[in-house]
Amino acid sequence: xxxxxxEALASQFELDFTLFTCMVSSLVGSGWFLDSGDSFHMTSKKxxxxxxxxxxLQILIEMGNDEKYSVSGVGKVAFQRExxxxxTLTDVKYILGLKKNLVSIAMLEERGYDxxxxxxxxxx
Length: 124
Description:
Number of domains: 1
Radius of gyration: 16 Å
Number of strands: 10
CATH topology: Cathepsin D, subunit A, domain 1
Shape: globular
Strand content: 35-45%
Structural class: alpha/beta
Number of helices: 2
Strand order of the largest sheet: 2-7-6-3
């Protein structure tokens, strides 16, 4: 029984690894940056949202350069992977004036991913 559990765990890790690797590839290719300092996924590009609820959330985001931005909405951003499957980031903050699209490492970890950086690459 132990062997089949190990195989199932290895298979799940391979699936998660493939999903995350494709997600990173899709994100980087579309101008998104993985950010270990942010608490939220965020973008200023309204066109990237598959769903968006525009509303003032009374949340002020302070960036590393001391600029402050208010959140103007929240929604989902979907990415098409190379082989056709879609990946969706949820609870993405819509922030007018933000210069970069940011994926929060903390939010990925909250969803169960272990993110490891090695030799300039990110791995689950």
